[in-house]
Every structure is written in structure tokens, then in C-alpha cells.
Amino acid sequence: MSGTAAWARTPERGSGAALRLMTRIALGLGWPVANALLHPVTLFFLATAPASQRRAMRRYLARALGREAGWRDLWRLWFCFASCMLDRVFLLTGRTAAYRLEIDGTAMLREAAARGEGLVLLGAHMGSFDALRAIGGAGAPVEIRMLMHPGGGAADALFDSLDPARAGSVIPLGRPDSMLEAREVIARGGIVGLLADRATRADRMVPVPFLGAPAPLPAGPMTLAAILRAPVVLGFALRTGPRRYTLRFEPFAPALDLPRGAREEAIARWLALYAERLGEICRAHPYNWFNFHDVWAEEA
Question: Which of 25, 46, 105, 139 could form a disulfide with 249 if both were Cys (CB 3.0 to 4.6 A apart)?
């Protein structure tokens, strides 16, 4: 079973009622109270996580940290994830005054916008993309749309209810007009984002070096980026502390070329470059990568 297949078979944890209760507490009593409650919530989810999930995360953290990962490391990873989920409630409802954001690389975005040139942004399940959309708007000078499969879980339904515009920021994959809509965004000088570290549907996986061992990554995002024929940048929104985020934009390629006769080799080469940079970010910010599954497909 591939790492992605294992993730796809993992059921969503946490009921819709519990999520709605936490949201009411957060918005009614404020961030400090809700943040304090994250400690027992994190302990519960860490203690009740499947043993296979904890083993997978220990392996990831050991590679990212360069040492054996202990319970404190698992706690920090789950707590960072829970904190980003809590922050989404405030970011999506416009309660951003207490948040602090550092932005790296917006000059590149502004120069592209001045030329009327659209971009493809490759991201990852890292930190909070809502920080980019909700409070990155002041730094990101153009329209940003995500090209992805809609989630459909309790969390997505809740977050869509908090910000009705959120669903509109997604271009759903799988529709006949999905790529046409994405191309129109590019033609307007906008940015189309893709999460390239995990497949959400059946996708061909390509093993590439990642944190010291071959890991299967999906070929789909690189193929879609090549179809859009636009310059490609990397984008990460990293949680660096309580209500603190760093948005980082980096050049990746003028455009992705997948030549006939060497298409598979080109996809593997681009994926390897992406995985190399993702691994560097994971080592620098090990508790920000939220892939709670067997990434390297080490368990049958």
C-alpha cells in the first residue's frame, strides 16, 4: 500500500459537533481560552491516535530532526496542527488584528503582477494556507485560487460556513471546466495553487528522494502545472509561534516542460527538485508538516 493510499483510507477524526463546539468557544470566549483548551484536546488525539500513525510520524520526525523522536516531538507536531486549525477560525472570520505575519518573496509576485503574468504556486500540507489567503491578501497583490479536489468533511463544511468566500477560492478538480477556469485565472495574471505533496484521489505515484529515503509523490500536480504553461513558484505559510506566521515565496521554474519521449523522466526530475526543497523546509520547521500517514510506504 502506498503512503498516499494509506492516508486516503484514514477516516477523519473528530465529530462535526465537537468542531462546532470548539468554534463557538473560540469565537465566544476568545483565543486565549481556546488556546488553553488545545492542550487537553491535543493530548486526547495523541493518546488515541492509531499506533501505525504514531509510528509513521516518529519516522518522519526522526528524519526531519536528525535524531530519534520522542513523545514531546509528537506532542509538538500535533499541537502545531491543532493551533493552525484554531487559527483558521479567526483568520476565516476576519479576526486578524492580533496576528503577525512576515512575508518573504512578494517582490517576485508583484513583478509578475505588473507584467500581467499569471503564476502556478506549488505548496504543501504545511502550516496554514488560510494565512496566505486570509492575511496574506495585503502582501499577495493578485487573485489566488487553489486547484484541488473539494474536501467534503466536517471540518471543510464548518470552515466554509465561517467564510462563504472560501469555497469560491477553490477550483474543484474533476469537472469538465476545471482546467479552463484555471487557465482563465492565469490569463488574468492570477495565481493557481496546487498542493504537490499528497494525492487526494487515485494518482500515479513516483518515488523520489525525500529526507534521505525514496518516497512516492503524486505525478498529477506536476502534470497540471505543465499544462497551465506559466512560471512556477513555491509557497509555504509556516507557523512560527502563537499567532505568528511566515509566508515564503520562492522561484521554482520559468515553466514546467514535459517533452514527448522523456515525459516520465521530466516529471521525476521536477518532483525530485520539489521534494528536495520540501525536505529542507521540513528540517527547518519540522512540526509544520501535517502528513499523518506512512509517507515512505514502509508499512504493508
Answer: 105
233-248 as b/e: b if 16+ CB within 10 A: bbbbbbbeeebebbbb
Pairing of strands 232-241, 244-253: antiparallel
Let me know: does 194 contact 186? Beta carbons within 8 Å.
no
Residue whose cell numbers read 460556513: 161
**Contacts for 163 with CB less than 8 Å, ≥ 6 apart:** 92, 93, 134
Backbone φ and ψ of 240, nearest 5°: -110, 0
> In which region does residue 211 sit, left (phi positive, over 0), alpha (psi from -120 to 50) or beta (all else)?
left
**CB-based contacts of 44, cutoff 8 Å, min separation 6:** none
**What's the CA gap between 283 and 117, in Å, rounded?**
32
Nearest residue to 212 (alpha-carbon basis) of 295, 115, 88: 295
Nearest to residue 111, comparing CAs of 7, 249, 213? 249
Hey, where are the domains in the chain? 3-288
β-sheet bridge partners, residue 270 = none
Q: What sign does the dihedral 53-85-185-149 (CA atoms) show?
A: positive
DSSP state of 12: P
| CA distances, 284 to each of 52, 233, 276, 287 (Å) | 25, 19, 13, 9
Secondary structure of residue 89 in the 3-state scheme: helix
Digits of tens for pLDDT over the chain (300 positions)?
344 444 344 444 555 677 888 899 999 999 999 999 999 999 999 999 999 999 999 999 999 999 999 999 999 999 999 999 999 999 989 898 999 989 888 888 888 888 889 999 999 999 987 777 655 454 455 788 889 877 667 777 887 788 777 777 889 888 889 999 999 999 999 999 999 998 766 788 999 999 999 999 999 999 999 999 999 999 999 999 999 999 999 999 999 999 989 999 999 999 999 999 999 999 999 999 998 888 887 654
